[in-house]
Amino acid sequence: MTETASNPTETRRGAGKGLKIERVFSTEGVHPYDEINWERRDVVQTNWKTGETVFEQLGVEFPDFWSLNASTIVTTKYFRGAVGSPERETGLRQLVDRVVKTYTKAGIENGYFASAADAEVFEHELTWLLVHQYFSFNSPVWFNVGTASPQQVSACFILSVDDSMDSILNWYKEEGFIFKGGSGAGLNLSRIRSSKELLSSGGTASGPVSFMRGADASAGTIKSGGATRRAAKMVVLDVDHPDIEEFVETKWREEDKIRALRDAGFDMDLGGKDITSVQYQNANNSVRVNDEFMRAVEEGREFGLRSRKDGSVIETVDARSLFRKISEAAWACADPGLQYDDTINDWHTNPETGRITASNPCSEYMSLDNSSCNLASLNLMKFLREDDTFDAALFTRAVELIITAMDISICFADFPTEPIGATTRDYRQLGIGYANLGALLMAMGLGYDSEGGRAMAATITSLMTGTSYRRSAELADVVGPYAGYARNAEAHQRVMRKHQAANDAVRPLHLNDTAVHKAATDEWAKVVELGKTNGFRNAQASVLAPTGTIGFMMDCDTTGIEPDFSLVKFKKLVGGGSMQIVNQTVPRALKKLGYDAEKIEAIVDYIGEHGHVVDAPGLKPEHYEVFDTAMGERSLKPMGHVKMMAACQPFLSGAISKTVNLPESATVEEIEQIYLESWRLGLKATAIYRDNCKVGQPLADGGGKAKKDAADAAEAAAAATKVVEKVVEKVVYAPTRKRLPKSRQARTTSFTVAGAEGYMTSGAHDDNTLGEIFLKLGKQGSTLAGVMDAFSIAVSIGLQYGVPLETYVSKFTNLRFEPAGLTDDPDVRMAQSIMDYVFRRLALDYLSFDERSALGIYSAEERQRHLETGSYEPVEETGNASELLETVPVAKAADAEVELVEAEDADLLAGAPSVEPEAKVAKTTAELLEKLTGTAVDSPLCMTCGTKMRPAGSCYVCEGCGSTSGCS
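The structure assignment produced for this chain is given below.
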C-alpha cells in the first residue's frame, strides 16, 4: 500500500521523509461522503419502564446502512455540545470530521506524509473506513479529540506505587483523576512491605491489603466520570508476597459478609445503599504467578514468600495449598484471576527499561508502569468476501493505515499525569485489535471450538500484528524509532523473531487460512528485516479489547474475541418498535455448509422459535458445532474459550480481555485445571466467572437446563435459609380457625420465574387480610401440581388459624431452589425460587408499608423513590426503576402448630381459574435469549436504562444505550 519517499540531503532524523499513501478504499476525485446515501433520523431514548423520554435529538444525519441502534448509541454517547444548542453535533459527518481532520493535521505537522496530496488521501481513506464501519477508535477518541477538552485518546492506564507513604498517597490521587476522567487503571502493590515485615522505626508495616481499603473507598466515591457505574481498576499482587493469602481472601471474605448482611435485612443489591459498607468491591484482583510457583504446584513442593526489602525467604508455604486457596476464592467470588509473569515478560520488548508488573482493568494492556495505550478495533466481517473467504490483502491495507493514525494520535494527546505522558511518548504503545471474530468464523462454516476455527483466528491475528509492526518499522524510518528503542533494540528484535517463529508453527487446515497464513508469513519476514535497519516506532502494537460500545458503533454481532452470544437477537426498528430476528450470519453459514434455500428457511424458522439448532429440521448433527454460542442450549465448553485465547495469544503484544464463564455446578478442581492449562498453553492472563457466585448481580441458571441432584438442592436450600435466630420461649395456645366468607374478594397473578410459568390466586377476608392461596404450576395430575395443591391447603389453613403472613414471608423468602432467576414482575425483578417470588408478591399485595419495611420488601416505585429522595415513604408518585436483586431479612420467625387438614378442606382448591401468564417482553438480546431458553443470562442490569446487559470481554455492555460496566 505504501512506500517511503526520502530526501538524501536531509540529515535530521525523519526530516525530508514521508509516507506515500496509496488510495485503496476511497475513490479519487470523489469525497467519501458523496458516495453515501444519507438520511435524517430522530434519536429518542425512553425509560422502558415508565415511558419517560430521557434523551431526544431530532433530525440527526447518518448513512442509510447504519442501524438504528448504532446511530442512537453514537448520538447519545459521542456527539459533543449541549443538546438543543447550536454547538451540538447533528450528524456523523461532523463527528468523523472532528476526529479525522485532527489526526490529519497532526500528521502533517509532524512529518508523516510525503506531500499534501498524501495527507489528503490519508484523510479520505480514514474517513471512508470509519463511515463504512470497517473499524473504530476507542471511546476516548470520540469523546475528546477535536474538542476544547484535553485531547485524551487512551482508555488503558497502568500506574506505579513504591514502598513509601508519599508514593501510596500519590497513587490515590492519580487513580482518582483517572476515574474522574471516565477511564480505569491497574497497578501492582508488591513493592509495598508486607504486614510481616518491620518499618525503619521498628514498628510493623500495615501491608498492601490495608492500603487497598483506602483506594477502594476512593474509587467507590469518585466512581467513573461521575457516572453511576463503578470505577474500573485492577489490583495485582505477586504470588511470593508474604501477604498473598490475605490478598486472596479479601473479596472472598467480603462476599460472605454481603450474604450475611443481606440475610440480616440490609440492602446489598449492586448499587444498594448498604453495599458501600463492604470493602474491595471496586477492583478486579489478580495474582501474578511465576513459572517457579506453577512448577511447584505441579510437583507438590514448598514455595518461598519473600521479603520486599531484601528478597530473602521469610516464610514457606505448600504451593498446592496456596493454589487451591486461589481457586477456592475464584470459585466463591470470581476473584482473583491469574497473570502469568514469566510468560508476560518473555514477550516484553522493553526489559532494559523495566519489567511488566501490571495490566489495565480488563487485562488486555500489559506494559511498563506509568504508561497508557490507545486502542482501535477492526470489524472482521467487513473483510469477508462474497465467496466467504477472508480478504487478507484488503485487511493488510486497512491495518497499516489505522496503525499510522494511532501513532499520530500520540503526537497531540494529553495524559492524566506527567509520568504517564512521558512514558507513553517515549514508548508509543498501541493496541490495535478486532471485533466480530465469532460472527466471521460462523459465516465461514467454522466452529469456534474447532481446530479450523482456531487456525483461522490465529492466522488473522498474526497478520494483523505482523502488518502493524511492519508499518511501525516503516514509520521509524520516516519519523524515527521510539525514544526507548536504542537501549531495548536487541530485546525488541528477539520478540519479533518469537512472533515469527509462532507464526511458522501454525498449521493451516484449508485454502482460506493457508492464504492468510502466507500473507502473515510475508509480513513477519519484512518485520524482522526492516526492524534490523530502521528499528520500530512502537514498543507495542496489538491487544484484544472488549469492544463494547464501539462494537455497536460498527454494527458488530460479536465483540472482541468472543463467540456469538446467541443465534437470535433483538433489533430496534426505525420509526419505533422492535423485532426478534435470527442473526444474519446463520443463513450465510448454512449456505456455506451446502444447504439449499428451502432447508435454510426451515432451519432459520426453527432457530427463531427455539433459539438453538438442536433437532433443527434437516440440519446435520456434525454441523451443530458451527452454531455453538456463548449462551443457550449448545453453549461452548469453558476449555473451548481457553484454547481460542491460546491460539491467538502468541500474535499479540498485549493480552486478551475475556472471562472464562463456568456453570454454577463447576467445581474448584475445574477452576484449578483452567488456571493450569492457561499457563501451560502460554496465556498471559486468565479470569473466570462461575454462575451465581456473587450476590450483587442477578445470577442463576434457570429452566432446568443443568439440574442438580436432591442432595445438592437440599444443601443449597439449607445454606440460603441459614440465619442467626434469637432463642425465645415457646408459647402454647389453642388456635381458633377464622373461616373465609362464602363470597370473598380474590386476585389472580400470572408470573414467570426463570421461564417457569404459573399463576397464583389469593382470597381475602372482609378486612382485606389474606386467608387463602391457590398455586398452579405444572400439568393437572402431575406430581408438581399435586405438591402445589397440598402446599396451598397447608398455608391456607395456617392463615385461617392465625399464623401471621409476616411469618410465612420471613420463612419462605430467600429459600433457594430451581427454577430461580428473572421474573416478569417489575416489583420483584429476581426470585431465588417459586416460593421466594410467591411470598414477596403476597407481602406487596397484603402487608402494609410499615410491615413490609420491617422485612425489607419494597415495590419498584418505592425503590425508585428512595434513589431520588433517600426515603421509601409514600409521597407523590415518582416512577419505577429496575433492580438487580430482591433481598429481604429472615427475622422474628416463630413456630406455630395447626391442626391437620380436614378432608372437607380439599374444596379450597376447587374451581381455581385457569389463567395463562402474560408473555415476557424482551428488551434486549439477553432478555430475548432468556425468554427462548428459560435460562437466566448471567449479567447485571444496566444502571443507566435498566435493561439486561450482555458480556463483552471481561465486562458487560448494554445494547440499549451503549453503557458498559466499567471498561471503556
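Interim note for the steering committee: Residues 1-15, 224-229, 697-733, 876-919 have pLDDT under 50 and may be disordered. The CA atoms of residues 906 and 936 lie 36 Å apart.
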